[in-house]
Amino acid sequence: MSVRLDAIDRKILAELQRDAGQSLDEIARKVGSSKTPVWNRVKKMREGGIIKQTTVLLDAEALGLEACFFVLIRTSEHEAEWQEKFLHALRSRPEVLEAHRLAGDIDYILKVQVSNARAYDVFYQALIQEVRIHNVTALLSMEEIKSTTALPLAG
């Protein structure tokens, strides 16, 4: 289903990205509408797949997950069986926050959030036991400069 977005839809989405815990009344007031039309628009955007889920953002450091590694993976394996095993390994590990298949010299990049370097090593050892990987480079993030889940909604 294709959903066409107008300016009000984009304002609603911007408000939901800023704080999805707001009431419909608050959102309606901020976008210049009333509660029922806002509810109908949100429902339409959920059904149309624009809004995938509503969630809560947690503070990793407050939870003791102070080390963020970006893991660059090169593989010489490209068969479907290997790929299925690799994807299963990534999806089954909660410390893997993101995984992307890339064009270029690096095949995959992972964002891995753990408590410290030792916890990363435990993750790494488990991963290479489960799937064969040609080369792994881990980069420790020294400082998070920008992080957002908000998509740009200019339109």
From TrEMBL:
GO terms for biological process: regulation of DNA-templated transcription; response to amino acid. Pfam families: AsnC_trans_reg, HTH_24. It comes from the Bacteria. GO terms for cellular component: cytosol. Keywords: DNA-binding, Transcription, Transcription regulation. CDD domains: HTH_ARSR. One of its GO terms (molecular function) is sequence-specific DNA binding. Residues 5-66 form the HTH asnC-type domain. Gene3D superfamilies: 3.30.70.920, Winged helix-like DNA-binding domain superfamily/Winged helix DNA-binding domain. This is AsnC family transcriptional regulator.
